[in-house]
Structures are given as C-alpha cells and as structure tokens.
Amino acid sequence: MTVQGTYSNRGLRLSYLEAGPTDLAAGAAAGSAPALLLLHGFPFSAAMWEPQVAAFSARCRCLVPDLSGFGESEPTAEVVRMEDFADDTRALLDHTGVERAVVCGLSMGGYVALALAAAAPERLSGLVLASSRAAADTPAAAEGRLASARTVLQEGTGGFAPGFLSKAIGASTAAGQHSRIEALVLAAQPGAVAAAQRGMAERPDRRGLLGEIRVPALILAGEEDTLIPPEESRQMAAAIPGSSLVMIPGAGHLANLEQPEAFNQALARFLDALT
Ligand code: MLT
Q1: In a mutational test of the pocket of ligand 1, which residue from 38, 40, 42 has the highest number of ligand atoms less than 8 Å from its CB?
Q2: CA 71 to CA 96: how far, in whole Å?
Q3: Is the peptide bond before 75 cis (omega within 30 degrees of 0)?
Q4: How far is the C-alpha of 259 from the C-alpha of 262, rounded, in Å?
Q5: Which of the listed residues 2, 20, 151, 165 has the most CB atoms within 10 Å of its CB?
C-alpha cells in the first residue's frame, strides 16, 4: 500500500510517498520493517523510484520524498542547496518517527545523502550512492550549470530535456524506456530545475567525508554512465571503509530506471546483509 503524505520544513509544504508492509493508510505502525529512504535524482521526483517501491515495499518501510520544487513539493526560491534538501529529509524522518534509515540517493539524491551523512550521521543505518559523486563541480561545470539554469527559465523544460537525456540515458536503453524517462523530466518545473542547478553548482567537495562513513555502504554505477564515469564510482568505493561496489551492465546514469532488475538485486543483497 502506497500513501502520499505532506509535512512542513523551512516554511515549505513538502510531499512524500510512503509504502510498506503494513496498512499505512489505516495508520498502523510499520512494525520492525527497516526504513529505506529513497532520494531522487535531478530533475525527477519520487516517481522515479516506482520500480524500487514496487520491489521493496514488502520488506521495507519506503520513504520517498519529492525534493523541494519537484513532484508535489513547494519550491525553494532561486537556489536550493544540497544542505536544504538534506534538512528537509531529516525533517521527514522526524515527521514519520523514523530514527534511522538506509539512505539511498541517485545522483543529486546522492549529493543530498552525503549532506545528510555530514549533518546527521546518526540518522543513517546504511548508505547507498547510485550514479553519484562526492567531488564538487569544477569551475567549468559550475558555470555550465548556471548557464543551463538561465536557459531552462527562458526555454522551459522542453528545451532542457533533449540535451539532458542524451547524456543521462545509456546507449543500451530501449526506446520505450526513453519515452517513459522523458515524460518524468518534462514534468519538472523550470524554476525548480534552475534552483537545483544553482544549488548543485555550490555544493562542497565531500570526498573528505567518505573515510569517516561508519555505516555499511554500497556504491552502484551504470557501466555506460557518461555523466559520472564509472571510474569515479570505483574511487568513491575505495574511499569508504568496507563498502562494496556493483557495476550495472547496460545502464547509463539512470540505472534504477534503465536496469531496474539488476539495480534491485544489488540493493536487495545489500539489505540482506544488513539484517
Ligand atoms: C542527476 O541525475 O541527479 C544529475 O545528473 C546530477 C548532476 O547534474 O550532477
């Protein structure tokens, strides 16, 4: 059973999905099911985790926020920093009474997961970084984001989507999946896309944090990812004590959507090892 909820943080009305093994709609407690917090990538929403919610809600209490400005959540004006998203995420854990969760972030969601790990490490029982990185943007990449923010405000998400998708989707991904993913991107609001681009451009280098992570960690990467090359994922896994790395064949940057079965198998093995 999946239910949609709302809560407030930073003066914003924020939305999330919750799905779990008990009847959450009837207000029943989720019992001892481990909490799995799924943080979406840019410029998506909670909807991008549909294949994972379907696979894991029988065993986990899945909490899936729409980050500010995306899906049903109110936007942060001008710029939304990864620390803002992380604070909203911590507030969601408070709102739902979850002490600790396995935090799984894809790409921008991974930047948020690392910001949460820096600010509130006690809230994590595990960390999954998918198609993500700990390094900050290079000056050129940050400049490119600011230009992209200006463009999307002028041209709308329709002008932004083709360039983004050409880089985000792996060469092996079938045309049918392409249109499904495109629809998710086109649903984004230009103001939210711009605010997130500006926030990502400002994000700090968190590579120093990796060696301090004390919870079990899994790094997932698509073998065909050109936005965050697999080599960066290897380096990140090498820097996190005791972490494991799974490379997903036939997937680009959006591995959870492009190869959901392989993604889910890797996540399931990780969760099995935790319990
Ligand atoms: C994402 O998938 O979240 C973005 O590609 C992240 C980024 O632009 O760095």
Answers
A1: 42
A2: 19
A3: no
A4: 6
A5: 20
In the reported structure, the alpha carbon of residue 158 is separated from the centroid of ligand 1 by a whole-number distance in angstroms of 17
Q: Which atom of ligand 1 is nearest to the CA of 108?
A: 3
Tell how far CA 52 is from the center of its chain.
12
Ligand 1 site, residue 227, Cβ cutoff 6 A: yes
37 bridge partner residues: 63, 103
User: How many whole angstroms separate alpha carbon 172 and alpha carbon 61?
Assistant: 32
pLDDT tens for 67-93 read 999 999 999 999 999 999 999 999 999
| Domain ranges within the chain, ordered by starting residue | 2-274
pLDDT in tens, 205-220: 999 999 999 999 999 9
Ligand 1 centre distance from Cα of residue 132 (Å): 8
Contact 132, 109 (CB under 8 A): yes
Residue 2 confidence (pLDDT): 87
Residue from 119, 12, 102, 109 nearest 63 by CA: 102
Coil, strand, or helix at residue 23?
Answer: coil
CA 264 – ligand 1 centroid, Å: 20
The pTM assigned to this predicted structure is 0.96
As a CATH number, domain 2-274 is 3.40.50.1820
